[in-house]
Amino acid sequence: MRVYNTLSRQKEEFKPISDKEVCIYSCGPTVYNYAHIGNLRTYIFMDMLRRVLEYNGYTLKHVMNITDVGHLVSDEDDGEDKMLKGAREQKKTPWQIAEFYTAAFMKDIKALNIEIPEIVPKATEHISEMIEFVEGLIEKGYGYETSDGIYFDIEKFDGYGKLSRANLEEQIAGARVEVNQEKHHPADFAIWKKAPREHIMQWQSPWGMGYPGWHIECSAMGRKYLGDVFDIHTGGVDHIPVHHENEIAQSEALLGRPAVNYWMHSEFMMVNNGKMSKSLGNTYTIDDLKEKGYNPLAFRYMCLNAHYRNKFNFTWDVMQSAQVSYDRFVEGCQAHKSGNEAVDIAVVNEFLSDFDEAVNDDLNIPKALGVAWNAVRYGKKSQQIFELLTKMNRIFGFDLDKKKEELKELEISPEIQALIDERQQARKDKNWKLSDEIRDELKARGIAIEDTPNGAKVKYI
Ligand SMILES: [Zn+2]
After folding, report:
1. Distance of CA 39 from the midpoint of ligand 1 (Å)
2. How far apart are CA 170 and CA 245, in angstroms?
3. Which end of the chain is more exposed for a tag (fewer CB within 10 A), N or C?
4. What integer pLDDT is reported at residue 97 of this predicted model?
């Protein structure tokens, strides 16, 4: 298996530290809002990596953190805390906000059939590990105290910038205008912040009340669960220049050696060839897709159709054609299920070897999907082909058993829903005449209604 390592800018043969178990760390969500489809693309990539490793027989020890401590608006140290901003806007405590959006995120990744990593630690439950990490950096001379926090001295660390390949001058140019004149270098970053009184989330530390820097969260939790050195670290390309550069600096400074062997990053998702942003109103969520009648797995299909290292452009037209292709693919697979035509085993083996080659070549899932399509379209209908497709689907993660009819449930219009609700009320009121009239009206619109102990079930006729 070969993977592209951002650190070396090359595809490399994947050699895990242990023969059996692969240790992975993935930067998880900051839970102050709904994840948008661009965020979710990164987790679909993470899932592809998991599934290809499992397909190759590895077991996984995979950590994905939940950043429930507010970090700052930008990747730099200034700006308003994201969690606090969310809390203020929604009149809730940061803990309530974090809990709500963590549940929403888990629901989204479940809808996308993304495997949940073995360990999902919350930052707020690992403050003592972070403090210990900061103490270690101070002890080794990499951390220093200022009036507003503890900073990492990037000039003391030789390899700073090796992941993004930016030099220190570029880092300075990229750093924002500094308020804190006590920093040794403009690009030094906070590993611990002293909390102003109005900051809701704060913890006791050797430097008074405060809260951890975002970067230290990942370094500390990764080390706690995966040890000093582990195999793979994943994230989005937007993490490369600051967040991951800083994680590398912290971990290597403390350990005296690299903590991660392979760094893997997925590219951005664009919308209508531009950036996704709140002000443009194009930060779509899984619920937005569902409301328009799309199956989240059709979105998954769309993501699998683009290589994770290529930018991908989302439009509603592309979503529509992905839905059509996804349905055809699932139906095509199902058509083989009851087939009994004989297929030459050599043909099956060739499909499988092409598939294996594609997935093991830096997760070339679009190519693997192409091989699967060739199998779907193969001239003979055969259970052997179905078994092959089922095996391939261990990586794709589609719902091959799902009947298309069920998808139609998503398409109930508000008008129909109002009729269904009205009929339910009529039944409660024992107004059987009205209830029957509405049933007939629904029938005339092609909808059958069935009363069960759990309420009315709706079907298209
Ligand atoms: Zn991280």
Report:
1. 13
2. 13
3. C
4. 86
Whether the CA torsion 328, 334, 336, 338 is positive or negative: it is negative
**pLDDT per residue as tens digits for the range 384-397:** 999 999 999 999 99
Centroid of ligand 1 to alpha carbon of 457 (angstroms): 44
List the one residue out of 253, 218, 226, 229 whose CA is nearest residue 126: 218
Cα of 64 vs centre of ligand 1, distance in Å, is 9
Tokens of 64: 């994905």
How remote is the CA of residue 121 from the centroid of ligand 1, in Å? 12
| Ligand 1: centre distance to CA 158 (Å) | 21
Residue of 443, 441, 440, 439 whose CA lies nearest to 451: 439
Which residues are known binding-site members? 27, 218, 243, 247, 278
17 Cα: distance to centroid of ligand 1 (angstroms): 21
Look at residues 97, 69, 207, 98 and name the one whose alpha carbon lies nearest to residue 151. 207
Whole-structure pTM value = 0.84
Mean pLDDT of 395-418: 74
In the annotated binding site for ATP, the residues are 278
Report the distance separating Cα 458 and Cα 446, nearest Å: 10
**Would you give the DSSP letter of residue 411?**
G
Encode pLDDT of 250-272 as tens digits: 999 999 999 999 999 999 999 98
Cα–Cα distance list, 450 to 412, 415, 421, 427 (Å)? 15, 18, 13, 13
Please check the confidence at residue 3 and state whether its pLDDT lies above 70.
yes
List residues bridging with 248 in a β-sheet.
none
- Look at residues 44, 57, 64 and name the one whose alpha carbon lies nearest to residue 1: 57
**Looking up tokens 């993470």, which residue turns up?**
46
Residue 171's nearest CA partner among 268, 249, 257, 269 is: 249
